[in-house]
Write a structure and sequence with these properties.
The structure is a single chain. The protein starts with a helix and ends with a helix. It has six helices and two strands; from the N terminus they run ααααββαα. It has 131 residues and is mainly α. The chain has a two-stranded antiparallel sheet. α1 crosses α5.
């Protein structure tokens, strides 16, 4: 019986450790992508520019509309959205990111500036988001 509990504990620990390690690595890559593609509009603190570019920090839209957020990063976004009760109607241009880069930047922004995402965004998930 002790062996059973030891194996169960080991598998659980390894799974959690592996997922945390994978998330940490994805977030590091995502931070670099954010610096290259997103920081100009959404700022270094994720707060955006009032009336022009929506915040990513503590963003209800980002956290409650996962698939739409992935779609916006993957294909760009045009049209009105509401973020934290404020309307934005601008253009987010297509950036030409790979599915891996989209997953990485999503993992970074959904776990930064007061956001907490308990479910890692995967390349498979991103690849299933179609235009």
């Amino acid at each position: 019986m002790k062996l059973f509990w030891f194996i169960l504990f080991s598998l659980t620990f390894n799974t959690i450790y592996s997922q945390n390690k994978d998330l940490d690595e994805s977030m590091k890559r995502g931070s670099d992508i954010y610096q290259d593609f997103c920081i100009t509009c959404h700022m270094g603190n994720g707060e955006g520019l009032a009336g022009a570019f929506p915040p990513l920090a503590k963003s209800d839209y980002l956290m409650n509309h996962r698939a739409k957020s992935i779609h916006a990063i993957k294909y760009g976004l045009q049209g009105e959205i509401t973020v934290n009760g404020k309307k934005y109607n601008g253009l987010m241009a297509y950036q030409g990111l790979t599915d891996e880069e989209v997953a990485d930047v999503m993992n970074y922004i959904t776990n930064s500036w007061g956001n907490k995402n308990n479910m890692m965004v995967t390349v498979k998930e991103v690849s299933e988001i179609k235009k």
